[in-house]
Structure formats: structure tokens, C-alpha cells
Amino acid sequence: MAAIDHQKELNRAGANVEGWWQHTVHLARRYPLGAIGAVMVFIFVMAAIFADVVAPHDPLQTSAAHSLNAPDGSMVFGADMMGRDVLSRIIHGARISLAVGIGSMLLGGVIGVIIGLMSGYLLGWFDLITQRIIDIMQALPLLVMALVMAAALGPSLENTIIAISIPLVPQVARVVRSSTLSLREMPFVEAARAGGMSEWRVAVRHVLPNTVAPLIVLGTAQLGSAILTEASLSFLGLGVPEPYPSWGRMLSESAAEYVRTAPWLVIFPGIAISAAVFGTNLMGDALRDILDPRERS
Length: 297
What we know:
The chain is mainly α. The chain has helices at 2-30, 32-49, 51-54, 86-122, 124-138, 142-153, 157-183, 187-194, 199-207, 212-235, 247-258, 264-291, 293-296. It is elongated and about 75 Å long.
């Protein structure tokens, strides 16, 4: 009997894997651009996780003999002015970009969810005050507000995450608030209240889970914006400092002086930034369509 039960479990697991694979293939065929974006993001994530294994050289190792070497067999993307391998620095730079992008997205998302849920559920004076503050924050562009925060906090990895996360809060708060306003009057919420649930338990257990779909779509869009903002801050010298290999700092070190004599120092980091942002945007557009109830119907 034990052997039969074990075989049934194996068959069930195999059927689940096959069903998951067929569903994935179906989505890839229906949303080919989204599948391309997901593959691009997956490549960057794998490069960031296994950077120490994938990178052919130490990204911090300098060599005067290889200074400004053009791309060749030993250094596929060439070397910078200090003889460091550009490909290795781009691979390790994916760690910085994804760490800042995901960290700022999560931090800004958590703060925005709390504010939006409280604002949409409590209403009254709290909603009035928070919405006016959010209006003021949204009046400033993301990059400008991040510049102000980064200049005030100073250049470091943690401060860069905080500086980018704060400007992301208003958009998350607005999305959660609008969802909460429509959900708080739904019959299942009224039933939960009638069953004796406290207001906060109703908000957390019944209202908040139903805001996940728009938050996922918003999160992917904000990930691309955060990566681009981190590159801009590093380009201006307000982002992640040395010795961390940042794509934006790689551009700032070489854009003005070496764009003509060593164009690979500008081209390859620029391609990495563009590909990361482009991939997250494609994936976010596909997720928006997949999670849209009108599309599912």
C-alpha cells in the first residue's frame, strides 16, 4: 500500500509539473513580448546571484598593462582606464542594480500599502492630511525627489535604497487607497463586519489581499524606474559609491573623457541599463494584461 501511495504522489506531482509547464507555454505564446521581458529579467537575476561564478575576472582587480584595452578574447567587453574587466563589472553591477531596485520597491511598497490602506479605510481627517502630503510629493518628479533625498542622506547602498523608495510611496498609496475605497463597501466585507470582525482585521484579512494584483503590476513598473534612477544617481555621484561596480558610475567615469577613444566603456553599461529597464517594462505590461479580469474573461 505504501508503494502504491508513493506512486500516486509521484504521478500527481508529474501531472502538476506538466500542467504548470503547459500553462507557462500558453502564456508565452499569448504574450510573446512579456515572455521576452521575463527571460531578460531572469538572465539578470541569475547573473546577479552567480556573479562570482559567471564573471571571468575580479571586477575590482586593476592592471596598468590592460588599461583601456579594446574588446578581445581575454576581455570580451574590453577594459576600463584602470585595467578592470568591463564584463565582470557589468555582471557584478547587476547585483547592485537589482538590490537597489528590489529593495527600494519593497520598502516603498510596504510604506505605501500601510498609508493607502489606512487612508482608504479610515477616511476622515487622516485621509485628508495624507492625500495632501501625497499631492505635494507627486508634484516633484521621481528623479528630482530622489536627488534631494540622496544629497541629504549621503552616498551609500542603504541610503540609495531609502532615497529611491520614498518617492515611490505616493503611487503605491494612491493605488491601494483607490482599491480600498471600492472594496470596503463590497458584500463580503459587510459580511465580515456583521460576523463580528474588528475593522483592522477586516482591512488586513479581506481588503488588503484583493489589492495584490494591481500592486504586482505597479511593482514591476517601479522596479524598472528604480533601476534607472539608481543609475542616474550613481552617474551624478550620489548613488552607490566605490568600490561597488555600479552601471551608472561606470558611465560617469568614462562618458565625458573616453566616449571617443574607448566607446566600449559607454556602450556596454548603457546596453545593460536599457536591457534591464526594457525587460521589466515588458514583463510588467504582460502581467497587467494577465491579471486584468476583463482579459481573463
